[in-house]
Amino acid sequence: MKEWTGKNQKPGRAWLEISLKNLRDNYRSILERLPEGCACMAVVKADAYGHGAVKVAQTLEQEGCRHFAVATLEEGIALRAAGVKGEILILGYTMPRDAFLLKRYDLLQTVVDEAHGKALAAAGYFLRVHLAVDTGMHRLGISCQDEEGIERIFRMSGLKAEGLYSHLSVADSLREEDKSFTQKQIADFLELKRKLAAKGFFPECHIQSSYGLFCYPVEGMAYARVGIALYGCTSNSPKENLGVRLKPVLSLKCRIACIRTVEAGSFVSYGRTWQAAKESRLAVIAMGYADGLPRNLEEGYALVNGKRAPIVGRICMDQTILDITGLEAKEGDTATLIGRDGEEEIQAVALAQRAGSITNELLSRLGKRLTAVYTE
Fold first, then answer.
1. Which of 103, 226, 267, 304 is most buried, judged by most C-beta within 10 A?
2. pTM of the full predicted structure?
3. Which residues form the domain of 37?
4. Is residue 240 in a domain?
């Protein structure tokens, strides 16, 4: 993603408008909800969910954030290369052969299981690590029931095990059985924490993501790993309420490339899936699925001069077609896919829902061809 530095004008094709003010406001609102002694670990993986990891991390550091989470070694190195000084935890797997890079860039590495821990320790770099434990998601992590294996990792001479964490798999669900499952995950994690303390191990613990923080308050955690909430969004539905005022950070916009009128009965775009019921005025906008717009978007629309313009026909790789019949529009005008235009607004979560997805996926897949316009 490229940052736009043009003066008094917007990019020519398609771009993101990212409000650093709203990012700062969201961070401050999140801080107010943290229990005493708990810090915000800002999750900036996947290029900060499409918002630009370097710019987001730099902005949050200015606000006092000292803890960040990424998914890969490469993401961590990129932040260090940009001058980010806070602690950076890699949540994903790093090959033991790359242990020297973890040491060189002072990165905290997740130990995904005992075998991974042994291999990292054997690399000979005395690495700082956090141990992932599995409390029921069955993804990364050693089983929280394997107390002997966990203790062996904490005693490994080639590692400095500073942290312990797990991940809640259904903290965003309102189903009673899922609430019970989440409570059990938390209880199992806290019991493991207690047992480790009894043996003289006091790692920095964290188990909450955005939904965990707001829906399942837990005392005694060193960090809350906050991702989607930082960016002013919920994941699943516009009706979700996390109980904190969040401001959308990102808007997605592009240009109208051309306008044409088609006769009644005309088919539009690939597959001839949409047919004009009457003479229609269409706008071709300069954005497609290669820019991250979901190809399977159903009943979608854009905002053109404050009015809704339905998407018609299949979304193409580089273009999308809107029905602007009855609307005022001209070539070069702006079409908004996420964000506000006049009295109308399209929320990222609503767009994701119409595509059968979640906000996290939609935002993280926004294409590298887009230009980022950062505003204060």
1. 226
2. 0.95
3. 20-231
4. no
